[in-house]
Amino acid sequence: MSDTAVRLLRPDEYNAWRARSELAYAQNMIESGGIDEDDATKKAAADFAALLPAGLDTVDHSIYAVEGEGVVIGSLWVAERDTEQGRALFVYEVFVDDAVRGRGHGREAMRFAEEEARRRGISAVALNVFGGNDVARGLYRSLGYREVAVFMRKAL
């Protein structure tokens, strides 16, 4: 069992979180989506600007620091969204530093998201995961998540 704690991200932590998260998103688009680096960087910036126009104060979005032994080791970003299957708490990001992966911190962050959904009266948690991220997909499956769609592509 991990010693994971989850708390709201503080305003003084936001800029560093956003820079790391936006860069990681762009990198995932490059590696898993086959998107050109310049296009991925522009899309990441545009997506973050659209999704978080008021930063930490964006309505229905919550960003949390994930801590292990009192040190920030990751983050969790969730938002309330309407989906085709109804209202859900959507996980935009669950991130754990490479140095402490495999110790249950991601699992605990996802359990926190589920409890947060219940606290908000939301009966589902939803997320997207980049193809090729087999570790994350395995975690989600082990927690009872099921794939509802798989987008595939072949470059010619």
If you had to describe this structure to a student in words, what would you say it looks like?
The protein is of the alpha+beta class and 156 residues long. The protein has one domain (4-142): Gcn5-related N-acetyltransferase (GNAT) (Aminopeptidase). It contains 4 helices and 5 strands; from the N terminus they run βααβββαβα. The chain starts with a strand and ends in a 14-residue tail after the last helix. The model has no long low-confidence stretch (mean pLDDT 92).
Q: Any idea what the CATH architecture is?
A: 3-Layer(aba) Sandwich
SSE order in H/E notation? EHHEEEHEH
- The coarse overall form would be globular
Question: Strand content of the residues, in percent?
Answer: 25-35%
